[in-house]
Amino acid sequence: MPLRCKLLSGILWLVLHQATIAVGSSGSEIVPPIFRYDDFKACRQVNSPGEFCYVRIVLESKENDVDSPSRIVPNFRRNLLDWGMCIADCQREVGLLDESERERLFQPKIEVNFTYMVPMAVTHEQLHNYQSKYGKLINICVNNRMERDYQLSQHAYSQIEHCVTNDPLVTRSDFDWMTVTFLVIGVMLIGSAVGASVVDLLGGAKVKDHIVVSAFSIRRNWARLTEVNTSKIYKDIGYIDGLRVFINVYVLLVHCILVVGAVPTSDPSIAEGLLQYRVIQNITATAYQTVQFFIVITGILLMANFMKDLEDKPQLSFEYFWKKIINRWFRLCPVYYYFLLMSMVGHALPGVELGPLGYKAVVMERNICRERGWKNILFVSNLTNGFVPCFLQGWYLGADQQMFLGAILVLTVIWKYPKSIKPMLVVLLVIPNVIATVITYKLGLESVIPIRLSELKFLLSFEKWFFHIYQPSYVTAHSIIAGMIAGYLYHETKRGRLNLDESKLYAVLRKVTVPITVIGFLSPCLFYEFDFPRPSWTVLLHSILYRNYGAFAACMCFIHFFRSQPGTIRRFLASRPMASLGKLSYSVYVLHVPLLRLMVNNMPTLMEATVTSVGALMLRLVVLSYALGLVVYLVLEQPTFQLLKHYILDRSSNKVKKAE
Q: Which residues form the signal peptide (predicted)?
């Protein structure tokens, strides 16, 4: 039986498998409730000092199917609860109990084999004070409610995670030098943009040409945004900008879906029920592939531009590579660092009032970033090794920057030793896959990205697959190398030095592209439904397929596109509006998570995990992200890049030329 027929048979089985009913739906009410919050607003307004505490509650449980060693179980832990409790209410309830009842209801610490608290040194002293003051009270209050409201005889251990208060001494301490710095920078940027725009319209010719006016003028930055690249390479692959827009929007939508599992919801059984459907399991598994698409695009553009520059100017110098690195830093750092600072400010921003979900949304992020934000500054936040990261989406920027530096090193070797390009790229394509396979085998990891609601509430920070496979640059580097290979093939084909129609390897790859991609997309649900011992050959082989099919499909599509005339879709993706939106992709990617956190903070009650509410959240996030992304591009991203480029990059280049 030919290989293609076997692949098609497998696809048919998988398609039919998707069409069957879900593997089970968790539609019943969860008792005791995983999330239960007292009335946050009433607690803080009616009582003084209005103390409200977020509590982790641990129950003893003999059965924990979420820890299955052979299957991915997407459910919440039934023995880990997340409650928000008003101290005044607890004091009234416990005050009605006699001493013997209080002693009976108190539960000492229960030892469990999973992480239920986020360790943070920055809040250790504050939490210790709250725990010593209210720890026993909340412990008794929780168990009293368990018996009274849910008729449960089993007692639970409670630990305070965070408390908020109306005490002016506490709230005033939140407004510190970081908050002032963030506000001053914001005012300076807006003031400079307004001032430069006025001067650009009304000033004399000499003043208009000043670099500060040129950099901050909104009119000129709008022209930069809407300017169309006329280079030959862009005419061939300009559709990538439009593609970026759709991938970016997809990332925003996925993050909205993940919020349903990451923050307290009114009915967690809805999230559990959704994740029982095979189609949903397969869609969530594509989160890994979207990252690979972005990395492939980086590799394609890097190699295609390098090969063109090398051909146009054979006498390149090390300054060429250094400029590429500096140029990239100037583009990335200002926007990234400003919103990183915003995360460190958190709820102390003017106009931000903490809501019931405020701790989960902004306060926890603020505390983590103040403790671990230095990793983001150094672009190494992807190497978390089991700690909750600051500025969650920053891991990609760290990994991308590391891979970019590695790719520049590869280009430097190619420049010095041109004949090494083919064997070196092949070896570099294999090495990350070998590393990932060895890690998967040694640690007994899953073959696909495991979406477990039990881990999602910690933003998957303690999920081994994430910090061993998903985030490290040395494991995902195969995608940037694949992109570089595609970029090299583009250059050689366009120069007439390569005819892919004569390649037997390309003919085989072209035939199996669609079957492999479909199998890669449809197969993740099998690892939720069936038991696959880990490690095993099945898991290892599927892990190789899963990690590579997205990058492989992206490269094969790119090769097909540059060998054919653009159709309606590609012309639309390369149009001026899409190209302009594509230029906003970086700012949108950086700011959308802080924006999403503020939106969650403003929710008046626990989040509603319904299609309507999540859909509305998605729409608001996409519209607001691109609206604010436009402002950030005009006021922050372009002005700072133009200034840094002028005062550092251009001046250093002029000094080198004078020295020569």
A: 1-22
